[in-house]
Each structure stands twice: as C-alpha cells, then as structure tokens.
Design goal:
Layout lengths: L2 H13 L6 H21 L1 H7 L2 H26 L3 H13 L11
Helix pairs in contact: 2-4, 4-5
Length: 105
C-alpha cells in the first residue's frame, strides 16, 4: 500500500464517529462550542487590535472544529482505538517545549 493510500485509510478511520451515539456527538458539539467560546472571549482584545471581523469569522469555525475533533480523538483513544492513541501521542510530542504551563484565567 502506498503512503498516500495509507494516510487516506488512517484519515477515514479517524473521521469515523459511528462508535458514538447521536447524543454523545451532540455532547461533543456542545463541549467544543463551550471551549471555543471561551477561547474566542479570551481573544477579544487581540481580535480588536489585530484581526478584522471577517478574519475572526473565518477563525471561529477552525477553532471550534479543531477542539471538536480533538475531543473525539481523546475519547476514542480512551476507548482503546490504536490510531487515536497514536494521534494523541503525536499531538503531545508536537507541543513546543517553550510553551508555559496553562493557568486559569
């Protein structure tokens, strides 16, 4: 199997949410929106100073969908999904060493 086909196969598996009920997917959606609105609210001053409303409109769904996707991936990893576990491991390794610890704001 070629590298490209293998990546397509992995992406298809990661995009598969059939292991979740409609209610579970609705919960992921609400959790993602709750996290995203917090991100957006915390970015408000940055938005006003550096981004147009059009740029923010484009950025909002990117943030929301990234959070939604990661929530699903984390849950699938906790359910034992091998590819999801590898994805989480890669995400952890991709965190820059210079990022400071998170703090409550």
């Amino acid at each position: 199997m070629t590298y490209r086909k293998e990546l397509a196969k992995i992406k298809k598996k990661m995009d598969d949410v059939s292991c979740f009920s409609k209610v579970e997917l609705e919960h992921f959606d609400m959790f993602a929106k709750m996290l995203a609105i917090n991100v957006r609210n915390q970015m408000e001053n940055f938005h006003v100073e550096h981004l147009t409303d059009e740029q923010m409109k484009e950025l909002n769904p990117i943030i929301r969908n990234a959070i939604y996707s990661q929530l699903i991936t984390i849950t699938k990893a906790n359910m034992g999904d091998k590819i999801a576990k590898e994805t989480i491991s890669f995400s952890k390794q991709a965190i820059p060493h210079y990022w400071e610890k998170c703090k409550k704001i």
